[in-house]
Amino acid sequence: MTPCRARWAAAVAAGLLLLAGCASDPAPPAAAADALSGGPLAIADAIPEAQQAAVIAGFDAALKARLAALPLSPAYRLVSSGGSQPSRLILEPDRAFEFGSAQLKPALMLPLADTVEAAGLGGAWVVHVIAIAATADDADLAERRSASVLAYLASQGLRGGRLRAETRSGGAASLEVQFVPIIQGREARAWMPPESVAARR
Q: Would you say residue 120 has pLDDT above 50?
């Protein structure tokens, strides 16, 4: 790519981000931003790869400590992912939401707020809320529930450009909250749809 074309592509990418309202916090959909700019998207607070394990361990320890201080609830559980990904919060829809609605029950407010606090201790994250609908007919409710969780997380101070929600069909109904670290040199990957715990069962 010539220098002129590279500058033009970078200008187009910047313009698209401005139009999307994300210029101060770029949130690339998959690798599209990489292709336009000719390289990975630099994010100021991205985690150096050498610190990834320590940041994830710190997040997991903080989250487990906070949730352990709360009364036990059948509405959610923490699942350790192991490896290079932090633990995931799994919500049980029938217990986490009012019957047939997307209204979060009060029992979920503190656990969700605790995930935000744990993430705030260090590192940069993209938060994925994945709703699993048992059947295609349940997809609308699952989508509204994921949006409800997303809105609550945003109200706790998470940046909108780093929040993602999606709905998938098939498998037992559940809702997952995943904090995916933003790693230097592969920033765009954090915005890609992650694997769900349900998909691995």
A: yes
